[in-house]
Amino acid sequence: MTLTSTPAQTRRLATSIPGPRSRALMARTQGAVASGVATTLPVFAVRAGGGVVEDVDGNVLIDLGSGIAVTTVGASAPRVVEAVREQVAAFTHTCFMVTPYEGYVAVAEQLNRLTPGTHEKRSALFNSGAEAVENAVKIARTHTGRHAVVAFDHAYHGRTNLTMALTAKSMPYKHGFGPFAPEIYRAPLSYPYRDGLDGRTAAARAVEMIEKQVGLPAALIIEPVQGEGGFIVPAEGFLPALAEWCRINDVVFIADEVQTGFARTGAMFACEHEGVVPDLLVSAKGIAGGLPLSAVTGRAEIMNAAHAGGLGGTYGGNPIACAAALAAVETIEADGLIERARRIEQLMKDRLAGFQKAHRRIGEVRGRGAMIAVELVRPGTTEPDPGLAKALAAAAHSQGVIVLTCGTYGNVLRFLPPLSISDELLHDALDVLGSALNDAESARA
Ligand SMILES: *Cc1c(COP(=O)(O)O)cnc(C)c1O
Predict the structure, then answer these.
(1) Distance between CA 445 and CA 359 in Å, rounded?
(2) Are 275 and 140 found together in one domain?
(3) HSE on the CB side for 442, CA within 13 Å?
(4) Helix or strand run (H / E) with residue 186
(5) Does residue 400 share a domain with residue 318?
(6) Ligand 1 mutation target, pool 161, 232, 259, most atoms within 8 A of CB
(7) Can you tell me the distance from the alpha carbon of 191 to that of 168, in angstroms, rounded to the nearest whole number?
(8) What three-state secondary structure class fits 439?
(9) pTM of the entire predicted model
(10) How distant, in Å, are the alpha carbons of 86, 104, 295, 314 from that of 92?
(11) Both 171 and 205 in a single domain?
């Protein structure tokens, strides 16, 4: 077995899930790893790629998680593997702030080209989504000379101190970890399934709250499709109205595209679906085929507001991660992965709409591109059913399908397949999910 070859693209259950080797590794995990680092599905990976993850027991699982929207081009995309191999042999690190290298500059150029808007842009590279969000806030504050930052209900922006403050949900992200950074305010989101408001009305509600309770902030930060909060797509017109209010008032509009960026939603960036041009755009997750890299890209005059030496970090824009990012961008463009994400949306929404007709437990099917979710409710109500989400995820896991849950109420089942997955694997995974829904229905009837 060569560890670099992509596993065969079919689901295979060699043992029960998790198998004996994974169970043994989980026992070691409990003796060695802090218990605060939890695991969704305790199978230990040996290989992954295309649309599957192979585990230490020889099970091959269908990947509808992409390591949380990271391996958009696949977990062993050939161009990424080759680019990393070449770069790691050349040099692993010099620190861009000490002796720079071309890869960093090339990634900045690609980001400036690919992000929405034709204005003059600059980029800065970091390691994680949270770190990039922190830097976007630093930049917005120094540019405006103001302090307040407005985030939204159901928001997720990371686990560092400032990004915990920006994040809405207490358990598990914030509980016991305060005090949090000051001058963060929370505005109401547009959540069409639950508030029934059109986009303009929901935006007016948010703006009124901001003007009355905050005044003019430095920045407003929002995920164009919320990720951890439940794959919430705001009503049409909500994002453009907020962006317009920011423009008129000189408030920096920050799009957190950490989860939605790099073809995930059927556009290079999710802001494009409504023609929104953010002042700053934060990207990470899907940027580099699995290597840790993140970025802030935006208007040159805002990005250049920070003094020399004010931005950076030891590892930010590591050369191996940059090589991987260039290969990931090439893969997205050469392999037509934006189109592929749209096709995945169609396939998944068609199948899930069928399930929704048959099961009154699916309140809504939503999402964009290969970022699709079902919100689960008690029959005939909109009351969240987190127990059902948990049961369906467990059933899918036991059948070799990796799915994740999310949502403020924990009642959303979310699907984030790599764009390298085949239609056959998607159908197989959806068949598993359909059976799990049938079983759950008859068990509760
Ligand atoms: C995952 C995520 C983050 C945090 O990224 P990390 O790399 O985990 O720090 C921030 N914002 C959004 C929208 C995310 O989905």
Answers:
(1) 12
(2) yes
(3) 5
(4) strand 184-187
(5) no
(6) 259
(7) 14
(8) helix
(9) 0.98
(10) 10, 13, 19, 13
(11) yes
| Alpha-carbon gap, residue 349 to 357, rounded angstroms | 12
Query: Which ligand 1 atom sits closest to the C-alpha of 158?
Result: 4
- For ligand 1, the distance from its centroid to the CA atom of residue 339, given in whole angstroms, is 24
Ligand 1 atom nearest 159 alpha carbon: 9
Ligand 1: list residues with CB < 6 Å: 128-130, 133, 156-158, 223, 227, 256, 258-259, 284-285
Q: Could you identify the atom of ligand 1 that is nearest to the CA of residue 69? A: 15
Residue 444's pLDDT band, with cuts at 50, 70 and 90, is: low
In a domain, 11, yes or no: no
Q: Is residue 8 part of a domain?
A: no
Q: Which is nearest to 184 in space by CA: 232, 145, 237, 146?
A: 146
Q: What residues make up the domain containing 404?
A: 20-76+336-444
Q: Where are the beta strands (DSSP E) in 326-422?
A: 362-368, 371-376, 401-402, 404-406, 412-415
User: At 79, phi and psi to the nearest 5?
Assistant: -65, -40
Across the range 128-138, mean pLDDT stands at 98
pLDDT(61) > 60? yes
Nearest CA to ligand 1 atom 6: 129
